[in-house]
Amino acid sequence: MRLSKESEEFIANLRLYLMTSGKKDSEIKEIAEELRAHLEEAESRGKNLDSVTGGSPEAYMKNVSSEMITDFYGLIKFMPMFILLLIAYFITGSAIRGELSFSLLKLAAFPLIGVASIAAYIVTFRKMAVKKWSKKKEFIIFISIQLITVGLMSAVLFLDIFYFEPFYIPSREMMWIIAALGVLIFIIGAIWSKTWITVILPLFLFGPDFVMSFMDIDEMTALYVSMGTFVGGFVLFMLYLLIQNKKQNPRYS
After folding, report:
1. Does the pLDDT value for residue 50 go beyond 60?
2. Domain shared by 149 and 169, yes or no
């Protein structure tokens, strides 16, 4: 039986809410299948989503989540790869450009900014799951998080240049080795997560820097090329998400 659009969206939102709550994938799948069966039975009798959720989808999600065990072991297994990817994102670009240096400010601020950014995305996903936001609002919120993250990182770099001395500057050869290790981490991350996004995104972020490192061009041109490639990559990424969403929910496309 084909469920109503409202019911299908609720199942998808419940999965998102439970996933961002640290629940096991196998249990989330079981809960989603049970919910689908209940909704199919309810709709076959002429009832709607409220008859299953009691009129409060948000309370229903929270109640289901509270009855499930949080998969702390799964989260712990996830952390090493998350930390490696975070480090790779922070240092690969600078290593390719030959600008990599280490200061106390960078070592303290960049990890905090990264963790705060991830936390902001998780909170946003949880809110999206229980609130009916418009696509425009979702887009504005995600862009805002990205702009704030970039702004904070830029502020750290500015302060680092003028107020902090690096305690270690690798040689150019060592920077290439560090960049190669970063690329290796991105590839391993793609295999581990079974998605190529951890390779595609760095390709747009750092690919232009790699190409321009072998070209004799001025800094402003290099900046414009990098910014243009980043914006283009972001647009392509959003289109990719849209296409994937339509594939997963063909009845609503």
Report:
1. yes
2. yes
Same domain as 173, residue 58: no
HSE at residue 148, side-chain half, CA atoms within 13 A, is 13
Contact 95/182 with Cβ under 8 angstroms? Answer: yes
Cβ density class 189-226: b for 16+ within 10 Å, e for less: bbeeeeeeebebbbebbbebbeebeeeeeeeeebeebb
| CB of 65 closer than 8 Å to CB of 17 | yes
Considering the domain architecture, whether residues 184 and 98 belong to the same structural domain is answered as yes
SS3 for 70?
A: strand
Side chain identity at residue 61, one-letter code:
M
Residue position matching structure tokens 């990559």 = 233
**Do 35 and 110 have their domain in common?**
no
Instruction: Identify the domain boundary among 28, 46, 67.
Output: 67
pLDDT score at 253: 44
pLDDT in tens, 185-221: 999 988 887 777 778 778 877 887 787 777 766 656 6
- Is the distance from CB of 37 to CB of 152 less than 8 angstroms? no
Comparing C-alpha atoms, which of 197, 223, 228 is closest to residue 97?
223
The first and second tokens of residue 179, run together, are 């960049």
Strand partners, 70: 23
